[in-house]
Amino acid sequence: MELRSYIIRRLLLLIPVLFGVTLFIFGITMLFSPVQRASLYITDPKQLVDLPTIIQMYGLDKPFFVQYGTWLGQVLRGNLGWSEAGSMPVADAIWHSLPATLELAIFATPLIIFLGIFLGTKAAANKDKPLDHGTRVMAILGWSLPTFWLGLLLMMFFYGFLNWFPPGRLTDQMQILVDSAAFIRYTHINTIDAILNLNGPVLLDALRHLVLPVITLSVTHVAFIMRLMRSSMLESLGKGYVLTARAKGLDERVVVNRHARRNALIPVITVSGYVFAGLASGAVITETIFSYKGIGWWAWQAAVRLDIPSILGFALFSGVLFVFINLVVDILYTRVDPRVRLGGGLQ
Amino acid sequence: MSKRIPKMGWIILAALLCVSLAILPACGGGGGTPIPYKNDGAFVQETIGGLNSLDPAWAYDTASGEQIQYMYDTLLYYDGNHTDQFVPMLATNWTVVNSTAIKFCIRDGVHFWNGDNVTAEDVEYSIERAMVQNRAGGPTWMFYMPLLDRMGSRSGGVVVINFSAIDNAVEVVDGNCVQFNFVRAFPETPFLQIMSNTWASIVDKDWCAAHGDWDGTANNGTGNSTMWTYYNNPPKSRSPLYKGAMGNGPWELDTWDAIAGYIRLTKNTGYWQGPAQFNTVTTKFVDEWTSRKSSLVHGDADLVYVPRNYIDQLASYTDLNAIKDLPELTVDAFFFNQNIGNSSTYIGSKALDGNGIPTNFFSDLNVRKGFNYAFDWDTYISDAMQGEATQVGSPVIDGLLYYNNATPKYSLNLTLAKYYLEHSGWGNLSSIGFEFTLCYNTGNIPRKTACEILAENLLAISENFIVNIQPITWDTFLDKIFTISGISDLPMFQIGWQADYPDPDNFVTPFQYSSGDFAAYTGYSNATVDALIDSARLETNPITRQADYYTLQQAYYNEAPGIMLVQPLGRRFFTKYIHGYYFNPVTPGMPGPLYDMYKSNP
Predict the structure, then answer these.
(1) Within its chain, how far is the Cα of B376 from the centroid?
(2) Following DSSP, what letter does each residue of B306-328 receive, concatenated?
(3) CB contact under 8 A, B27 and A157
(4) Which residues of B touch A96 (CB under 8 A)?
(5) Strands, E, within B138-244: which ranges?
(6) Cβ of B495 under 8 Å from any chain A Cβ?
(7) Given Cys at both, which of A101, B61, B228, B402 links A294, Cβ 3.0 to 4.6 Å?
(8) What DSSP character marks residue B4?
(9) Is the minimum CB–CB distance between B6 and chain A shorter than 8 Å?
(10) Min CA distance, B506 vs chain A (Å)?
(11) What is the distance of C-alpha B178 from the center of its chain?
């Protein structure tokens, strides 16, 4: 199937996907009574007297299809509603919160992929040797460690004790500089903007604040990628062409890195796409612990506060993200494995 | 041949790893570590939550009120740590013209940040704007109550007042004075208290109108005389002041990033009282306690919010200035529901058969008294509040006008509790027994503790007294309180109240008035008490007023519509470099009156 028509066909799938996701989530939120949904606006006992007014104002007692239709109509006009969790329109809240999460994802994803591939390859090439056992223990630990525990531990030691890597995105002084007219915000990703502004101190400060959250995010995913890569490598190393390569007298490193690993990467590529999508849609615990507030933190706030417009907005965002990532992964798959054709099937 | 590490080696490695992970938490720094002096000229605080709005007429939460007080002045303010004495601010003086009018004369030479003069027209506009806006769930009922003797502009969601009522309530007189006209006589002190708070902040009329806000007239520049209602109960974003500001206070708005979770204010060098000591005031909203604590002990923050159960973690830091025993104007209480909804799932069999309670179980005074005598305040204060609270006997608490320390209080007495429960109108309850579910807000440990104390003591009186305890979220709580039938499903509930202004009416009305905030959900009604509350609210003679509130405090004890719990004592943890702090319970936020504070390295 031609690439362009394949892409268009996949992107058109967005419509039923987003419709289905939002309808499903809206339906779940309607399980809450109008009073419960009004709790977003009634946060203090002093406001109880205005509960009926609030319910009427926001149409919370209207039938399901009326409420969903109203919301859908506004969305089609480009209005995603108001985010109480972000104190701004939902679209603005997504736009404002995304850079922090993307910054984490941009730094964590390569680390996860390359470290996972490297360690997985080494483990497979040294099967049942100390290196393999060591990486297995590391993988078990990394997979088992609760993220919140690891994050708190890292912060207590590296910030609480050593004062090396503080939480947040920037120090106060750098934040004042970044907020000033002297610093141009291109992307709101601090490291990229610092490079574009040729500002070394901001870049270093931003990197310093990235260390702990990136490590926290990476540990679990590295463990997973490492084990996946190891399994895939072992399968590759058992194939006939590898035996042939060795029989031809090729160096073991060439056999592993040039012949076996390329084919072993296929499942890893698939998973890596989803790793990035998962990171880009927010890491609530990491963002909360390190005060690195991005879209994950915002979505969490929306969920606990029953901020339905924000919840639906996040659903739309996640739907678009995962459909897009799926598409990219599928296209990459055909590039890595020539046997696979677009639209399914093998050659 | 591969050389394998022996099994014992792996065990040793694993053990070393576990030990190192266990000791790492100890690496949090110690009390002896000095706190470095940082951020000279800047004040940084870290707390939880976030801001709602910077609009003085909109904001009804503490976090927003704190920032507003730094950016805007009011006509007058509390004198030091007093709650019933005031100093002039944007007003040079005020005069009680008669029992239905107070006049404030406006200070000359005060400017907004853009250089506009603060005038009487701005004052008139600010209060009228608040009354026009009158958003649902907002603070402006406090203007309607004294000025128009009603709670707001709407009924059933529809505006029912004329603009002329608002216009006549606030008028510019004598050139540069503003007169507030009450439809009925209103006592002076509570009105002055209302006018000292952030909802009475003075905003720039010209700036607001230029930025799309209400222009101060009924028709708002159109031919429609009801155009002002467009600005009534608006969406938050319609107000230019929700995220912007044009104030006259000691600091100006620099940046508010709601997603990143910080707000920064910079010094207003043209402030009429002289520039503040702090060049910048930064408030960061940081949910994680470990992060806040680390910021404090590393000097990155000058003040942080410390949850009560973590106080001990800071006890050994000698470079911290811990200010304790601050009597906050808040109170927590149990409420008895004397008319539980028939649909309630919290009252078991709905009959007094040992497996439930009837819907009017708590309508019996002896039952309510028995429950009061079954509560252990000493244990609650020591266990749930770390000893930092005082028992209260009525809604009028220490720090409010006309607080009567001699009002009797209930105390733990299981003998008396048993007596009242066995001599209730329902008969001998020890034999009959009862069972119901007592709810508390999920995550609120003090309230959970209060429920447990009550349940355990009742069980100690009789094994037939079964109280099940269940956590519920805030939205569920609202749902059970505010049912379709209009009657609450919860047999008992706990709720807290924080002062809007330090007048006893602000506490007595929600707790004891049949139309008050909580009485609607408790079925409590006493016409005599209602009449006394109405009378006391408007009484202008302080001696008579005091007598009325003394009577109301006694009435609460006599009728026991609930179990009054405690008035918490607050704490503040500053680094030793911050000076000049004083406590006023009415001032929103932790640092309080920041203008008088400064930072220096001794």
Answers:
(1) 25
(2) --GGGGGGGTT-TTEEEEEEEE-
(3) yes
(4) 257-259
(5) 154-155, 158-159, 170-173, 177-181
(6) yes
(7) A101
(8) P
(9) no
(10) 11
(11) 29
DSSP A175-192: HHHHHSTTS--SSS-HHH
The rounded distance, in Å, linking the Cα atoms of A79 and A74 is 5
How many domains does chain A contain in total?
Answer: 1
H helix or E strand, kind and range, residue A37: helix A34-38
Residue A86 included in any domain? no
In A, minimum Cα distance to B11 occurs at A137
* Cα–Cα distance, A29 to A36 (Å, whole number): 10
Looking at chain B, the whole-number percentage of residues with pLDDT higher than 70 is 95
Q: Cα distance from B234 to chain A (closest Cα, Å)? A: 10
pTM of the model: 0.90
Residues in contact with A72: Cβ distance below 8 Å, sequence separation at least 6, in sequence order: A22
* CATH code for position A234: 1.10.3720
| Chosen from B279, B282, B291 to mutate, greatest number of chain A CBs within 10 A | B291
**Contact of B110 with B248, CB cutoff 8 Å:** yes
Contacts of residue A64, defined as CB under 8 A and 6 or more positions apart, other chains included, come to A26, A27, A30
Cα–Cα distance between A328 and A321 in angstroms, integer? 11
Burial track A232-266 (b if 16+ CB lie within 10 A, e otherwise): bbbebbeeeebeebeeeeeeeeebbeebbbebbbb
Residue A314 lies in a domain: no
Strand partners, B493: B335
Quick one: CATH architecture of B42-49+249-325+571-599? Answer: 3-Layer(aba) Sandwich (3.40)
Angle at alpha carbon of residue B436, lines to B432 and B437, rounded to 5°: 160
In one letter, which amino acid is B460?
Answer: A
Would you call B29 and A160 a contact, using CB atoms and an 8 Å cutoff? yes
Count how many residues are written for chain B. 602
Residue A328 lies in a domain: no
Whole-complex ipTM: 0.88
**From the CA of A15, how many Å to the nearest CA of chain B?**
29
What are the pLDDT digits (tens) for B1-30?
444 555 555 665 565 566 555 555 544 445
CA B520 to chain A, closest CA, distance in angstroms equals 9
Domain that holds residue A205: 91-304
Average pLDDT of chain A, as a whole number: 90
Identity of the residue numbered B260: A
Say whether residue B3 is in contact with chain A using an 8 A CB cutoff. Answer: yes
The total number of residues written for chain A in this structure: 347
Residue B261 contacts A where some CB pair is shorter than 8 Å? yes
> What is the C-alpha separation between B186 and B193, in angstroms, rounded?
12
Inter-chain contact A32–B475, Cβ cutoff 8 Å? yes
Overall average pLDDT of the A18-30 stretch:
92
* B10 close contact with A: CB closer than 8 A: yes
Assess B23–A contact: CB distance below 8 Å, yes or no.
Answer: no
Task: Decide if B497 touches A, using CB distance below 8 A.
Answer: yes
Contact B305, B47 (CB under 8 A): yes
- In angstroms, what separates the C-alpha of A266 from chain B's closest C-alpha? 30
Which residues of chain B does CATH 3.10.105.10 include? Answer: 330-568
CB contact at 8 A, B316 and B33: no
Residues of chain B with CATH 3.40.190.10: 42-49+249-325+571-599
Q: What is the pLDDT of residues B97-155, one digit of tens each?
A: 999 999 999 999 999 999 999 999 999 999 999 999 999 999 999 999 999 999 999 99
B263's tokens: 């707000």
Q: Does domain B330-568 sit in CATH 3.10.105.10?
A: yes
Q: Enumerate the residues of chain A whose CB falls inside 8 A of the CB of residue B255.
A: 179
Within a domain: residue A157?
A: yes
Please check whether the domain covering B62-238 is classified as CATH 3.40.50.300: no
- B282 touches A: beta carbon within 8 Å: yes
Helix (H) or strand (E) holding B559: helix B542-559
